[in-house]
């Protein structure tokens, strides 16, 4: 069976060039970057070069990138690190949104348990939070603002520049979870009014288990992992040398092809929605999320009257991989907190996320749309 992977927002296949770069390191002599001998020095140089390559592509200084084990750790490090540093100055208020990834939501819930006051902003029906809302929520005690760049469920882009400008005007640090923005939007970090930004390699055809946190020069941060002096005392632990080099290679690849890919993905999205609307009618598949801006790679669709769980199970049998709301520990789907916050109510129950990426062709998309329409019609006849 021709299986079609439409879940690139969950994780992406490793690019062959990344595997090649990492394999050369794994098969090489090894070496701990903290060791003083030649093996260690080589490993250290590799990490240093990867950091320089990434910093150049992201428009920041090498020293401003801290490597982590992924997006989750970067979010935790940025949020706890900055909030605790600000609390030393007597600040105890956090502004965030109701549509953040769980890595941010749960970290901020922990801060709340530790005595921080939290303001959670609701998005509008398109999934966007306005900069004015964020500005109005900030007060004298605000320690940190955390607003994601691109939402992982809907692809909605938040107005980070305007939010950052409002935060900068009040001297409040801004953290943004930019995990889904990397490779999709042009990022020049020094030109953005952002103090902390989280990234993850496996969303851009890099390895799983590697991430980075951008910490703008001068941003106070209390380290979360204690031990050795790695990462300029900001994150202890032996560096994942091959993973870091793989991340740098993946970023080079995604950045060099970003504009071409965006165009291709736009065409895929257009064809996908055109075919589905032809088959199911506009009322049979409703696009969730949108204005003011949306990344074309993520398509969140509600199939009114159907359950997302049955859709996903049947699509999997047909060879189409997509995803729904947040997975519970039991493996069952809970309704997405993002779609509920957007006010979608019942429509959230039937929402499925399709996300495009490397390897998807226009033929795959047409084939997948056909399968999706067949499954939706079959399930509809059963209800
Ligand atoms: C927006 C967002 N933030 C954070 C994460 C967590 O990243 P990681 O899987 O690298 O821990 C993800 C991954 O799903 C994500 O989409």
Structural overview:
The chain has 383 residues and is α/β, with parallel strands linked by helices. It folds into two domains: 4-12 and 257-382, Aspartate Aminotransferase, domain 1 (Alpha-Beta Complex); 16-256, 3-Layer(aba) Sandwich (Aspartate Aminotransferase, domain 2). It contains twelve helices and twelve strands. The protein has a seven-stranded mixed β-sheet, with helices on both faces. Helix 3 (71-87) packs parallel to helix 4 (102-113). The longest helix is centred in the last third of the chain and has 23 residues, at 258-280. The protein starts with a strand and ends with a helix. The model has no long low-confidence stretch (mean pLDDT 96). The structure holds pyridoxal-5'-phosphate. Pyridoxal-5'-phosphate binds at residues 70-72, 75, 101, 103, 148, 152, 177, 179-180, 200, 202, 211.
């Amino acid at each position: 069976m021709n299986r079609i992977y439409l879940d690139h927002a969950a994780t992406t296949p490793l690019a062959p060039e990344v595997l090649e770069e990492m394999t050369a390191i794994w098969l090489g002599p090894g070496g701990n970057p903290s060791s003083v001998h030649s093996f260690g020095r080589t490993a250290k140089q590799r990490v240093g070069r990867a950091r320089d390559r990434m910093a150049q592509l992201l428009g920041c200084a090498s020293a401003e990138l801290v490597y982590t084990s992924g997006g989750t750790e970067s979010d935790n490090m940025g949020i706890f690190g900055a909030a605790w540093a600000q609390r030393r100055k007597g600040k105890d208020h956090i502004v965030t949104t109701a549509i953040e990834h769980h890595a941010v939501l749960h970290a901020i819930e922990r801060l709340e348990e530790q005595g921080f006051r939290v303001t959670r902003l609701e998005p509008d029906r398109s999934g966007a939070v306005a900069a004015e809302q964020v500005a109005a929520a900030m007060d004298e005690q605000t320690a940190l603002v955390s607003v994601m760049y691109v939402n992982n469920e809907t692809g909605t882009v938040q107005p980070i520049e305007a939010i950052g400008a409002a935060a900068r005007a009040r001297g409040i640090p801004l953290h943004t979870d930019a995990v889904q923005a990397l490779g999709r939007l042009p990022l020049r970090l020094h030109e953005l009014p952002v103090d902390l930004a989280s990234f993850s390699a496996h969303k851009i055809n890099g390895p799983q288990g590697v991430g980075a946190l951008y910490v703008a020069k001068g941003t106070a941060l209390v380290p979360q992992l204690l031990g050795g002096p790695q990462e300029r005392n900001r994150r202890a632990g032996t560096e994942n040398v091959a993973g870091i080099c793989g991340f740098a290679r993946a970023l080079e690849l995604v950045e060099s092809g970003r504009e071409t890919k965006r165009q291709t993905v736009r065409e895929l999205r257009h064809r996908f929605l055109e075919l589905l609307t032809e088959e199911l009618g506009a009322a049979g598949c409703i696009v969730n999320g949108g204005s003011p801006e949306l990344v074309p790679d993520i398509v969140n669709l509600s199939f009114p009257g159907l359950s997302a769980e049955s859709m996903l199970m049947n699509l999997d049998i047909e060879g189409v991989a997509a995803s729904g709301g947040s997975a519970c520990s039991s493996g069952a789907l809970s309704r997405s907190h993002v779609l509920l916050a957007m006010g979608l109510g019942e429509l959230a129950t039937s929402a499925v996320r399709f996300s495009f990426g490397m390897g998807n062709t226009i033929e795959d998309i047409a084939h997948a749309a056909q399968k999706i329409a067949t499954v939706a019609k079959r399930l509809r006849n059963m209800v």
